[in-house]
Fold each of these.
Amino acid sequence: MDTRGFYDELADRYDRVYADWDASVTRQGRALDTLLTAALGPGPHTVLDNACGIGTQSLGLAALGHRVTGTDLSPASVARATREADRRSLPLPVAAADMRALPFADASFDAVVCADNALPHLLTAQDVTTALAETRRVLRPGGLLLLSTRPYGELRRARPRSEAPHVHQGPAGRTVSFQLWHWHADGERYDLELFQLLPDGEGWTTRVSSATYWALPEEETAAYARRAGFADPLWHAPADTGFHQPLLAARHPGRWTG
Ligand SMILES: C[S@@+](CC[C@H](N)C(=O)[O-])C[C@H]1O[C@@H](n2cnc3c(N)ncnc32)[C@H](O)[C@@H]1O
């Protein structure tokens, strides 16, 4: 299954990979807002949520007053992000777009967020380089990139083969989500199989989908950011940010005169 197909198929039940998606929207929005305002001032800021999915970070940031635009490879995901924004009466313009070719003019945003392991869907050095260069292009001079991935330095050493189940309680019952990981021979990439057991009368319906990731260790991602022209890339640990993954913060090197 390709990446777009994986997320299109998952869009309507993506929230169920979280125990409580609404709580995560609020928590992640606050954590990102703290980093944004520490770097750029109180705002509100114009933010591109690049790989917004169904809106986990976009909605949290928009609720705090930032002017957020969401883009994602998956049209079904951005359509759901729009529905979620409407339900909360939040402004959230969205577009289906590939992070390797963003449909925005140079210097359009104060900040770009690319959160929850979206970049590792790009499987080659060329694609990672192109995406980071595009991100830098749409940032205004002095603007901020906030990018989160799994802690791949540690995971490349441990090579886990599964992730423990998460249980989501919804109106129709509980959904159980868990993952199997199948490492490629190169030791760098892996296929992830996501299993969801959905409540179905007295039993369960099982949905399985699969996607491929490139597990770039933190220092390699920072090196790609540097080569794409970002200044001062620095990883922040979850314990310091309250965000559930390590977050790379990096600046557009230019000087802001706006
Ligand atoms: C794990 S999801 C995270 C989504 C969202 N940030 C969140 O936390 O809910 C990864 C997202 O990356 C998007 N994605 C993967 N490859 C992409 C690409 N080349 N361009 C834009 N989005 C991409 C997927 O469609 C998916 O929505």
Note: The helical segments are 3-10, 21-40, 56-63, 75-87, 125-138, 152-158, 218-227, 238-241.
Amino acid sequence: MRKVAIIGSGIAGLATSIRLALKDYDVSVFEANTYLGGKLSSIEKEGFTFDTGPSLFTAPENIEALFSLAKKDITNYFTYRDLDESCRYFFANGKKIIAKKNVEAFANEAEKVFGEPADNIKKYLQNSNKAYQNIGELFLDFPLDSSLITKSETYKALFSVKFPYITKSLNSYNESSFKTPEMIQLFNRFATYNGSNPYKAPAMLSMISSLEQSQGTFYPNGGMISIIKALVQLAKEIGVKFHTNSKVEKIETFKNTVTGVLVNGKKYEADIVVSNMDIYYTYKNLLSDNKFAHKVLKQERSSSAFIFYWGIDTTFSELGLHNIFFSEDYKKEFQHIFEESILPDEPTVYVNVTSKFDKNQAPNNSENWFVMVNAPAHNDHNWEEQKEKIKRFIIKQLNKQLNTNLEDHIVVEETLSPLNIQEKTASFMGSLYGTSSNSKMAAFFRQQNRSKHYKNLHFCGGSVHPGGGIPLCFKCAKLVADDIH
Ligand SMILES: Cc1cc2nc3c(=O)[nH]c(=O)nc-3n(C[C@H](O)[C@H](O)[C@H](O)COP(=O)(O)OP(=O)(O)OC[C@H]3O[C@@H](n4cnc5c(N)ncnc54)[C@H](O)[C@@H]3O)c2cc1C
């Protein structure tokens, strides 16, 4: 049996461990933290439960695929509900809309509330869908190597999508697709799903809206953490061994072939090593390869986030599971994040409330709020200093939009800054999604999944191909496991 050492237990590390164990590899996962799951974790405080990282769950077929490969009934491990609305949007001018899953209903409502012709929205989503099917799936399901560039399917796919997808920024594409500022802003937001700037990122990212608006969003019963619980349970049942509190210090090599990992001063022999940790730190800390670490830095990091976890001692019927309170000047917000590397003065505020569905995640007549603003990747910022300022702004905004005095209702508070994200998950600069897609070629410059320099060394996770976010981490695991096998 060939031995595999996986460094890190994020979504991609766990999914890779399952795929390899099912192919009869002897798999051990080494995790620096005392808990498994990486960015996807949860906390409990005074009767409130909060998912601390990702909150949006799309493309459940990715997790289902693992259970069907293992010939297990997923419903014994993991269940979710299909949502009939994706998000509630509140605009600075006081207008609001619930984005219904039913495209017809959403488009008609947008026409009524903003005056955006319903056909514009329907056409946009049809085009995004087509682009996703033609090019998205090709790019996400194949390794990023020369075979992708030389494949005839790649050229066919590129020619099948509209020219502006390749030449325009997401914002300028949206400006030419919609006539109302609200719809432009709403569809610009999808660039943030991989930590990018809609004024720079390519129009190709409009495909993300198809994933959410056309295929739908879902809620894992028990919260996002139930994804990790299900994966870990399955992995253990099929023989994966987990070592928590086990920070890998070095990837051991001999004549440019990996021979194992060094953990707590002891060598663990392995035929294959898969690093699920951030690619920058893999090169810098585990391979002492400053040259390649430096190469990673040539690409702009994705944005990070500042998060408040608030226990609220009342309930708000205006809120759904996902809620966005847009800033007035979206362009300035991204200028602050990416060009000036400062926390925006007046950011867009995202509020996620899982107690809307899971009543046991908050005490009676209370709600568990996950309140997030986009932030620059960490770089010498003093987040403690920023915290009170941003809290004041968020409260002012939400008080206005929800007609309340929020400060009287916050009974529990925890926070997470970009620096905390870096410290807790070893994500360089606290980036949520590795590198950003702020250039047209960014997707092609991501680290490939197989090392070119060390035999039997592979990379998975949000900082490598095909990119960050839960669906892509699942896809990455498939690419890596298939390649190893
Ligand atoms: C606040 C926040 C909100 C997000 N929102 C969403 C969302 O709504 N939807 C979505 O799809 N995605 C979202 N994301 C992104 C998503 O969480 C990530 O893309 C995904 O979870 C990354 O998984 P990964 O496999 O790359 O591993 P990670 O989660 O990055 O885990 C890497 C693991 O490696 C471990 N590790 C690092 N160094 C070592 C070492 N030397 N030895 C051993 N172990 C080590 C770390 O401790 C960590 O557990 C969000 C992320 C954050 C932080």
Note: The chain has a mean pLDDT of 94.
Amino acid sequence: MRLAPIAILLAGLPLSAAAAPTWQTISSEPGKRIELDRTSIKREGNVVQAQGRVVLEKELIDGKSGAGYRVIEAITRYDCTGRNANTIKRIYKKNESEVVREEETKGAELPVRSGTLDDKVLREVCRPPKDSQAEIAQKANEAATQLKAANDALLKKEMAKAEKPPVVKAADSGHGEQSAIPSIRPNLKAQMEAAKESAKEAAPPPAPAKEAPSPAKPKPSMVVVKTSAYDAPPAPKPKKPAKQEGYMLEVSPSGAVVQHAHTHWGYEGAGGPENWANLDPKNKVCATGERQSPIDIKDGIKVDLEPIQFSYRPSNFRIIDNGHTLQVSVGESAITLTGKTYELVQFHFHRPSEEKINGQRFDMVAHLVHKADDGSLAVIAVLMERGSENPFIQTLWNNMPLEKNQPVSPPTVVIDPANLLPASRNYYTYMGSLTTPPCSEGVLWLVMKQPVQVSQDQINIFSRLYRNNARPIQQTSGRLIKEGR
Ligand SMILES: [Zn+2]
């Protein structure tokens, strides 16, 4: 299960709505998306200044301030003809609004390599406006008219003086339009090149290797040594090559953590569960924790458990494919247990079920993540088995986002999370952890004993997105499991 990103997103939403820049996503890839504020674009001939930003899914730690950030805004000047970039300012933010640190950079102009983040922004900002053809024609007309007028005036003057008509001279009369015409050619050239580049890229899906040759990427040796912002050696660090300064967003000064943005956690390969702890010092407990989830739920003590009080309400919803699962957030819904109220923050799905019951997995599971005012978490797991079609799930699948990290909020569709619950509210309970990095412990698990049904088609649809997004079973290590009788 996954909590932090959505919480940050939710916290950021009202503020971003009020903020001035209008961010538009121009590229989305695992772990980050690149956005551009079109209202910031300033053109001076072939040079375009624009504000872009990278929104990371996972927070990174700023090496200078020790604070976490998830958004990096950058003001960069792009030379559309020479395909150079020069970042003049970067702003690191905790979320949409909270600034961690600002830095002015004095970098040199650097060539923009194909496939980089800067390349993506450059292509957007250097693309001439849609009506450029009309503009060109109009400017040419204006220039011709003014040239003619100037000629006519000169001609008249010269005629009056009875001298020969100097036609050529009028062309240097200093009107801006004159210089505007030659500047168009390189612009078009850059545009054609950009078009060629994007055609190249459109064919195969972007390979992760593309990011590898970035000169901004810290050397692996930096990664191993530093574990936090606080144990930096007192020795002065060698000056970073000026090279790094000029680029826009793929660079972060906190070398140690940037690496992690490149190896993203997942369920197989280098980012797989056995490596989660190595990807980021913050994930340490994924490997060392002794109260981790999921577990095989068995040998519980059978007791009378306090019924969970559900205050689930129908509301609109927001669904996102966050690269790990489909995740849904709803309006005001909550549960109460042992006198404590936990708000429903989000729910999401795993296939197959992460938890086992007496050694058996289910086809899927929904995790409903709740948070109390004191920050403590309670997760309700609803196991899902193959059977009849589930109308609640169907509503969600009907509104499944087409793109990763681009949420869908259907304006007229209402769901009631109570419809996801089984008829019997009896449950197992134990203390565990988040089942995704950073694997934080102290999570109260409430696993519904009765599964709900979903159709084979509905399981297949989820499988198209996530064939396997279940963390392996963790050691129970003598933990007490209670089973409602
Ligand atoms: Zn989960």
Note: Residues 1, 348, 350, 367, 435 surround zinc ion (CB under 6 Å).
Amino acid sequence: MYIKSIKLSNFRNYINQKIEFDKNINIFYGNNAQGKTNILEAIYMCAIGKSYRASKDKEVINISKEFSEIELDYSKKDRDGKIKIDLNDKKQISLNDIRAKKMSEILGNINIVLFSPDDINVFKDGPSKRRRILDVMISQLRPAYLYNLNMYQKTLEQRNNYLKQIKYENKKEELLEIWEEKLADYAEIINEYRKEFVEKIKEKIVNIHKKITKDKEEIRIEYISDFKDKEQFIKILKQNRRIDIIRGYTGNGIHRDDLKLYIDDKDIEIYGSQGQHRSAILSIKLSELEIIKDETEENPILLLDDFMSELDKIRRENFLEEVEDTQIIITCTDKLELKNENKKIFFVENRKSKRRKKHLIFY
Ligand SMILES: Nc1ncnc2c1ncn2[C@@H]1O[C@H](COP(=O)(O)OP(=O)(O)O)[C@@H](O)[C@H]1O
Ligand SMILES: [Mg+2]
């Protein structure tokens, strides 16, 4: 699959911009803060339905405008399609000019794998980023997953609010049961999906990592969860009610799940070198790519945000060989020297003229 073009209206620093992509490699280069990552963000939103770096949808609307629109045209083996996102006070999605009833309908139309500079620290920072890797991958392939995850989050908030009401307003503790039952229902579904996909990663990652490290390192990934089965989980919640009431939030559940990664049986979080972190995340993402490929019989689109600068020239070319026949959209600050012939190079500059800001993309 590949993206043919994207049209941005009032999106971040783009007022009115159409970009036509190459089927293979696209390089967006330019100084910092010119709008390179904004392009990847818009594509990501068309795949996942929301941004990976804005906490609120509204943030992506140009600061001096009231609304924003993204229109993306893509091509797949069997069909072409169009995704449109309208943002003002609320978000509206259209697929092939038909309004979607549910946000989740956006998922799976195009599939992406994103490498962002932040990913390098995924095994150094807290577990939330690691959960997000799973969440984004699974949501794209199993839209029901995101629904259950959202319902779990909502129920969790309700339980947490009620915990506070017990503490401050002397509400009855027994009523917690209602939310605990519901939490366990959603947790069971989410846990099943996560187990399934960590298994899929396990099947892929060992060989991929061997290839990347030229047989030097052995990688192992593990899924850590409080959840074993429904009864056990309800029991844990019940047992921890007192402490949950004191702290005002739920201390156990799939919102605490984690991934552990070992290189040669050593926990990367504690013992990993910078280079190991880099190649580990590369292996995870390439596994994700393979999994999406297996499931959809299409190559997902690779979004590489500043990532190529993390790799030296040789690793860069090895990497690009590894992902042939894939549309790749790269941002970087220097014009990348690549030997691949099928590529389109864009220079991105946010030029300020006297009267108004003007955005320029040359290629
Ligand atoms: N809502 C917004 N309205 C207008 N400009 C924005 C908005 N959000 C971000 N920007 C501008 O976008 C630029 C950053 O874009 P980004 O794509 O992250 O840059 P880079 O080229 O470094 O990847 C900055 O100049 C920032 O001021
Ligand atoms: Mg950037």
Note: The two ends are 23 Å apart (CA to CA).
